[in-house]
What does this fold into?
Amino acid sequence: MGDTEMIKTALLAIAALALVAPLANAASNTTDKLYPELRAFVDARRAEFGQIPPERRELLDGLADYVKGRYEAGETSYLNFVCTHNSRRSHMSQLFAQAASAVYGIPARTYSGGTESTAFNPRAVAAIERAGFDVLKTSDDANPVYLVKLSGGSMPMPCFSKKYDGAPNPKLEFAAIMVCDEADEACPYVPGADARFAIPFVDPKISDNTPAEAATYDERAAQIAREFLYVFDRASR
It folds into this structure.
């Protein structure tokens, strides 16, 4: 086994332990615990809920009701965000939804996957770094592993491209959130999911290799953060 595969295996073992370990006190995991830059980004997005159109709110409200129902039952929400390549939108959704869980003190573990695997796109990685996440690249292979943190005291989230049913993603009792139309069409049924939601976002790759590239990725990151913060805000009420 090569060094890269050894690193990935170790990270998956850590993620598996985190899956079954008791959650830390979620109520204490507020915006005060986020990195300052990420906290400022999140606070700005929370002030923008009025920008979410009614048709988007209708899509988001179903997921909010699911999270609220599990929260009121004393259960953690396991959320798997799915797009075609697990390279851009699904990773950003996973990370911003985990931040939203911390902000509102609603226990959730978030994951991402694709209908096929490629790599966490460097442009999307750069966008989450600009938003305030701490990102450590641990390997240089075609599908590198990134360790992403919300705060100095948070557990790192291993992020790399994988199929939606690949480790460390949950196998049972999770919600599948389809964040692109292609994945929604390709996976009308996600085995093991107890709920499925279609919440598509426009792919930021439309601006790849253009002067608008960074701005487009930042705009999509802001939208994704805004909408999943809205989900947890509604679930908290």
